[in-house]
């Protein structure tokens, strides 16, 4: 029914938008297809957007993009049931805006990205679901959306963690409860001034807090709190297998996390205005599928290009960078008129030269390390217990720091185990 | 312990509910399942246990895909809602 396009990109998240934008700007005829009513309406983040990649694609994007706050305060907080120990890194926010971290709300941010694709000359169709691929002589030759066949020379599947297109093309990720995390999140509305006072951040400045420990009742996962302009994003991210095996529900963890002394006063008086959930691939390099086949490339979460190091799950930049690499690959293939897997094989080279595969490779043992249950229970408890002994004066003769540490470790973890875990951490994360 | 019921949470979100469900549960495949991962992994509690059987409603689905990955009995026929239907986040 359609004359077709040179390139069809499926999914208007950061991977798909970056790909479509790069292509459109190069004058290549590109169609971006999104199943939601508007780009971003199905998307959720539990992360911070670091500016470097997007700045390369759209210089000084922060002047125009609907980013929420520029993060100049990063906190990592270990939680026991009733207490917390935190590392609080704060700067004056005068660093380069290009490499700063930004909090974003995806329904606004992705919508803007898709608008940039249109401005660059790309065609964006929202409210259209890519149901199937057109197969022609064993190669992918377009998509089927809403009963219409739309031919293309090459398809970029950027349709997210549950990528059904990648599976149909035999490039599926193989998601399992052990390699995927579930994030549940609340957007909590608070006045702008309250946020700035409460988090000690300036106008447009922001804080990002990552929690480990009792926020997930000691199972594999973590919590986060980000400041937006006039709201907070509060969520927990838990390995799916940990939910199943421990008979836990994400929403219950979120509700009790919200009541934790480390969080309660930060969200006090706020009104919850949205509840959301999303999956995050967390299996690292081992989970990354074959990234291309004849007539198709896979980018972003659809290809499990997410870095899990325990410090955070970083996906937005990996999505943007893989989308850009997919577009560059298509440009090279187009010059040669070869969209076969041979023509598209430059994708592996480009990703291998970028931080995307280099980071995933460098941290390839991290997912296994992060399956250590002591990270989520023993060590946060230990840190809080030790801090309690250090900071609470009970009138008894005092112990040295080392004596305190030994006393606190007793019955929780052996020195031998602690050293082994520290050695593993040294090598993996 | 929760400050909101699931109904109250989902009422915050905007949905365009299709007349046809996008997820179907094959009841026969659920027979004999003791683990029932669906009860724990669905963040919208679309799966409920009634008279020792799983009952499912698709209306509040957040389209995360947890049920399709969590179920190890191949009991869930999963797809995204038809174009234009399902959840629409305002913030995300």
Task: Offer a quick outline of the entry.
Chain A is of the alpha+beta class. Chain A has helices spanning 14-25, 52-57, 106-119, 164-168, 192-198, 240-245, 250-258, 261-267, 316-336, 346-353, 355-362, 366-369, 378-391, 401-409, 415-428, and strands at residues 5-10, 30-33, 49-50, 67-79, 84-90, 101-104, 123-125, 130-136, 139-145, 148-157, 180-189, 205-213, 221-227, 231-239, 271-281, 292-293, 296-298, 307-308, 313-314.
What is the CATH third-level topology name of chain B? Alpha-Beta Plaits
Assign the structural class of chain A, choosing from mainly alpha, mainly beta, alpha/beta, alpha+beta, or little secondary structure. alpha+beta
Helix content of chain A: 25-40%
Oligomer: heterodimer
The average pLDDT value of chain B, as a whole number, equals: 94
The major β-sheet of chain A equals: 9 strands, mixed
Shape of chain A: globular
Strand content of chain B: 15-25%
- What is the general shape of chain B? globular
The CATH architecture category of chain B equals 2-Layer Sandwich
Mind sketching the topology for me?
The complex is a heterodimer of chains A (429) and B (92).
Chain A: E1 5-10, H1 14-25, E2 30-33, E3 49-50, H2 52-57, E4 67-79, E5 84-90, E6 101-104, H3 106-119, E7 123-125, E8 130-136, E9 139-145, E10 148-157, H4 164-168, E11 180-189, H5 192-198, E12 205-213, E13 221-227, E14 231-239, H6 240-245, H7 250-258, H8 261-267, E15 271-281, E16 292-293, E17 296-298, E18 307-308, E19 313-314, H9 316-336, H10 346-353, H11 355-362, H12 366-369, H13 378-391, H14 401-409, H15 415-428
Parallel strand pairs in A: 1-2, 1-10, 2-7, 4-12, 10-17
Antiparallel strand pairs in A: 3-6, 4-5, 4-6, 8-9, 9-10, 11-14, 11-15, 12-13, 13-14, 16-17, 18-19
Chain B: H1 6-11, E1 14-16, E2 23-25, H2 27-30, H3 38-41, E3 47-50, E4 53-56, H4 66-70, E5 76-78, E6 86-88
Antiparallel strand pairs in B: 1-6, 2-5, 3-4
């Amino acid at each position: 029914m359609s004359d077709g396009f040179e390139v069809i990109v499926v999914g208007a998240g950061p991977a798909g938008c970056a790909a479509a934008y790069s292509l459109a700007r190069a004058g290549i005829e590109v169609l971006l297809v999104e199943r939601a009513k508007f780009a971003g309406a199905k998307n959720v983040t539990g992360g911070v957007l670091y500016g470097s990649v997007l700045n390369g694609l759209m210089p000084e994007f922060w002047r125009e993009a609907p980013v929420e706050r520029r993060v100049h305060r990063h906190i990592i907080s270990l939680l026991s049931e009733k207490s917390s120990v935190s590392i609080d890194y704060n700067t004056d926010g005068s660093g380069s805006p290009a490499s700063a971290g930004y909090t974003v709300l995806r329904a606004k941010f992705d919508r803007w990205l898709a608008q940039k694709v249109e401005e660059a000359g790309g065609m964006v169709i929202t409210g259209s679901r890519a149901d199937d691929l057109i197969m022609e002589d064993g190669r992918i030759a377009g998509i089927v959306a809403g009963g219409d066949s739309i031919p293309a020379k090459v398809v970029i599947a950027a349709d997210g963690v549950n990528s059904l297109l990648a599976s149909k093309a035999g490039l599926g990720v193989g998601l399992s409860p052990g390699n995927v995390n579930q994030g549940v999140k609340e957007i909590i509305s608070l006045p702008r001034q309250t946020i700035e006072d409460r988090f000690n951040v300036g106008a447009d400045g922001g804080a990002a807090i990552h929690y480990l420990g009792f926020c997930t009742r000691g199972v594999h996962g973590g919590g986060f709190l980000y400041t937006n302009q006039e709201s907070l994003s509060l969520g927990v991210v838990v390995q799916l297998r940990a939910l199943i095996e421990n008979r836990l529900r994400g929403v219950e963890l979120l509700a009790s996390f919200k009541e934790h002394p480390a969080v309660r006063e930060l969200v006090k008086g706020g009104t919850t205005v949205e509840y959301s959930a999303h999956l995050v691939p967390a299996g690292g390099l081992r989970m990354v599928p074959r990234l291309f086949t004849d007539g198709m490339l896979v980018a972003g979460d659809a290809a499990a290009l997410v870095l899990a190091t325990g410090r955070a799950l970083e996906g937005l930049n990996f999505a943007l960078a893989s989308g850009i690499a997919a577009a560059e690959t298509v440009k090279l293939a187009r010059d040669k008129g070869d969209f076969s897997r041979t023509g598209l094989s430059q994708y592996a080279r480009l990703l291998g030269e970028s931080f995307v595969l280099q980071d995933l490779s460098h941290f390839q043992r991290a997912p296994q390390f992060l399956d250590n249950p002591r990270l989520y229970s023993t060590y946060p408890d230990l840190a809080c217990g030790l801090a309690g002994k250090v900071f609470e004066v009970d009138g008894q003769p005092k112990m040295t720091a080392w004596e305190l540490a030994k006393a606190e470790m007793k019955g929780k973890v052996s020195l031998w185990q602690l050293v082994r875990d520290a050695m593993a951490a040294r090598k993996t994360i | 312990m929760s400050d909101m019921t699931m109904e109250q949470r989902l009422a915050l979100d905007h949905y365009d509910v299709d007349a046809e469900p996008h997820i179907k549960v094959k009841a026969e495949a659920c027979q004999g399942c003791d683990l029932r991962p669906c009860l724990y992994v669905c963040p919208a509690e679309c799966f409920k246990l009634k008279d020792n059987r799983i009952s499912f409603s698709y209306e509040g689905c957040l389209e995360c895909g947890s049920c399709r990955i969590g179920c190890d009995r191949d009991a869930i026929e999963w797809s995204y809602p038809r174009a234009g239907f399902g959840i629409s986040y305002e913030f995300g």
